[in-house]
């Protein structure tokens, strides 16, 4: 019988979310194996408690009080499953820091370099289908293994069943609060063939740099415009880049020639707009509203330099959404999700 992990009561989540919103969990525990996870699920069910899964805390909005049992993986195991002359398949445990995994991944293969310095954990990466500079985690993902609370057993969900789309997946919808991700399987390419489609990576000269050079470049770019959450509390890009029809994009581009517009390869009739540009044009860049603000170097980032709570964030979110929609006719949706939804 596996040992029951330590369960803490009335546990502060202030340092468990990168916006550092004031929050407290009714109960909190960490696990390092599927056996420990199963024990926690059984304990919660015996007490009729909801289970909430916390990753790195970088893409959630914490309420003042979280009812139920909050659990977090501390497993950081990385293991090679198989390889051939073109690729290598690797399982990475959910508790692994995402950026640490990207840096480590080039020891095995390639494809994740563009996703360097994205905050959060490996287990959270498929939930949001994280992406940057033309690469999404679903491009390299094979499957996701986790514990089904409804079925009380471990399950593996293949990529085709993950319903991946822009910043979305089955884990944010049908399986939300019913599937605890324990590990993610990746297929990395042995040949280093970087995606340089998006600015500023398109300024790089192909075949003149290594995988580590690309990681260093991405880290430099992101560090120059995104605040370190350890120094300035934030949740990274707060709003999604809105997807609109190509006709709408063309109309807006005619009215606003400097508006950045990007193609959506999965939907040729759609285009992606730069949310940060829209927000900046509305005058929010660097503007503070009580203990929260839109970052002075990147208007897409909401920061909480003061002691903030969920209501402070919600007020600024609403202000930005209202002004952008009023001026451009485009609705912005937030990337971070309310933790209790």
Automatic annotation (TrEMBL):
EC code? 1.3.1.98
Q: Extract the PROSITE patterns matched here.
A: FAD_PCMH (PS51387)
Origin: domain of life: Bacteria
Q: Where in the cell is it found?
A: Cytoplasm
User: Which keywords does this Swiss-Prot/TrEMBL entry list?
Assistant: Cell cycle, Cell division, Cell shape, Cell wall biogenesis/degradation, Cytoplasm, FAD, Flavoprotein, NADP, Oxidoreductase, Peptidoglycan synthesis
Q: Name one GO molecular function term.
A: UDP-N-acetylmuramate dehydrogenase activity
What is the uppermost EC class here?
Answer: oxidoreductase
Q: What does this protein do?
A: Cell wall formation.
What organism is the protein native to? Answer: Thalassolituus maritimus
Q: Catalyzes what? A: UDP-N-acetyl-alpha-D-muramate + NADP(+) = UDP-N-acetyl-3-O-(1-carboxyvinyl)-alpha-D-glucosamine + NADPH + H(+)
Write out the pathway annotation from the protein's UniProt entry.
Answer: Cell wall biogenesis; peptidoglycan biosynthesis
Mention any one GO cellular component term assigned to this protein in its UniProt record: cytosol
Supply the InterPro entries for this chain: FAD-bd_PCMH, FAD-bd_PCMH-like_sf, FAD-bd_PCMH_sub1, FAD-bd_PCMH_sub2, MurB, MurB_C, MurB_C_sf, Oxid_FAD_bind_N
Set out the biological process GO terms recorded for this chain's protein. cell division; cell wall organization; peptidoglycan biosynthetic process; regulation of cell shape
Query: What is the name listed in the Swiss-Prot or TrEMBL entry for this protein?
Result: UDP-N-acetylenolpyruvoylglucosamine reductase
| Cofactor annotation | FAD
State the family it belongs to.
Answer: Belongs to the MurB family.
List each copy of the FAD-binding PCMH-type domain by range: 20-191
Q: Where's the active site on this chain? A: 167, 237 (proton donor), 335
């Amino acid at each position: 019988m596996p040992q029951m992990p330590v369960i803490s009561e009335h546990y502060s989540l202030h340092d468990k979310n990168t916006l550092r919103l004031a929050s407290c969990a009714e109960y909190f525990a960490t696990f390092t194996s599927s056996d420990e996870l199963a024990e926690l699920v059984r304990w919660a069910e015996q007490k009729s408690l909801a289970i909430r899964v916390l990753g790195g805390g970088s893409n959630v909005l914490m309420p003042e009080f979280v009812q139920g049992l909050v659990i977090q993986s501390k497993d950081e195991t990385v293991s090679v499953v198989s390889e051939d002359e073109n690729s290598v398949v690797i399982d990475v445990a959910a508790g692994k820091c995402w950026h640490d995994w990207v840096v480590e991944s080039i020891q095995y293969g390639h494809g994740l370099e563009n996703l360097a310095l994205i905050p959060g954990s490996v287990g959270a990466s498929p939930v949001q289908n994280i992406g940057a500079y033309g690469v999404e985690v679903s491009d390299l993902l094979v499957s996701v293994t986790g514990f089904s609370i409804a079925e009380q057993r471990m399950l593996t969900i293949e990529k085709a069943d993950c319903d991946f789309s822009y910043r979305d997946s089955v884990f944010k919808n049908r399986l939300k609060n019913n599937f605890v991700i324990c590990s993610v399987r990746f297929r990395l390419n042995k040949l280093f063939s970087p995606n340089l489609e998006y600015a500023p990576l398109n300024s790089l000269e192909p075949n003149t740099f290594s995988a580590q050079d690309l990681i260093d470049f991405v880290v430099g770019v992101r560090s120059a415009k995104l605040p370190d959450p350890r120094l300035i509390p934030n949740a990274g890009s707060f709003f999604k880049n809105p997807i609109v029809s190509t006709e709408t994009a063309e109309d807006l581009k005619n009215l606003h020639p400097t508006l950045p517009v990007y193609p959506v390869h999965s939907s040729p009739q759609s285009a992606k707009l730069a949310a940060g540009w829209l927000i900046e044009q509305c005058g929010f860049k660097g503007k503070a509203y009580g203990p929260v603000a839109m970052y002075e170097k990147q208007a897409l980032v909401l920061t909480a330099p003061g002691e903030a709570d969920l209501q402070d964030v919600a007020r600024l979110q609403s202000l930005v959404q209202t002004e952008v929609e009023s001026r451009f006719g485009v609705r912005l949706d937030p990337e971070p999700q309310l933790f209790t939804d």
